[in-house]
Amino acid sequence: MHQMVFQRFEEICRRRQAGGRVLEVGAVPSTDSLLNLKALEQSALKIGVNLAGPAKSGDFLILPLNANSMCCFRDNTFDTVLCNAMLEHDPFFWRSLAELYRVAKPGGLVVIGVPGFHLHGAWDHLSWSHRLPWIGKTLEKLSASARTLRYHAAPGDYYRFSLQAVHEVFMKDMTDVESHLIMSPPRIIAAGNKRNA
């Protein structure tokens, strides 16, 4: 995980007082796990899920579960639910999203990180190209493209997301939503609280 992504999750979790019972979907048994955030050190319980589990790392356990169906967890179980760099590898990511929200407690914090793409201004720094007609056509084509994170199979790599998708789909029924577009190629990190029933 890139240090800037880890730091943004840390800042969000610290500011929004994450903790209690914490679930990380897509957890890995290494220092890259979000369960290692300093903001979560005093959490009552830390559990990860990953298809590659089981594993134990530090003070948390990773269970071998498919995030599309986490039926071993009851509704409204976790105070904090984290997920980063996993949904693009999930061919049925909408099922995992539904499960993330199902297991979060009302008022619970959900923080999601996904690779994004950036359309507007992606090639603005090439505005001088009108002076070099021989590359004008190529740059015109580039201006219609989007910067995005490279393909990285784990085992598959299916999606890239827009800020609009994150707001209107991922955070649709959440309150106190915030989103951050960081790095280049872009990553989107969004946080919100599950609505109270």
Q: Helix and strand layout, with pairings?
A:
Elements: H1 3-15, E1 21-25, E2 45-49, E3 55-57, E4 60-63, E5 78-84, H2 93-103, E6 104-115, E7 117-118, H3 133-143, E8 147-148, H4 163-170, E9 174-182, E10 187-194
Parallel strand pairs: 1-2, 1-5, 2-4, 5-6
Antiparallel strand pairs: 3-4, 6-10, 7-8, 9-10
Molecular structure report:
- By secondary structure, the protein is α/β, with parallel strands linked by helices.
- It has one domain: 3-Layer(aba) Sandwich (Rossmann fold), CATH 3.40.50.150.
- It is 22% helix and 29% strand.
- It has four helices and ten strands, in the order H-E-E-E-E-E-H-E-E-H-E-H-E-E.
- It has an eight-stranded mixed β-sheet with strand order 3-4-2-1-5-6-10-9, with helices on both faces.
- The radius of gyration is 18 Å and the shape is globular.
- The two termini are 35 Å apart.
- Residues 122-129 have low confidence and may be disordered.
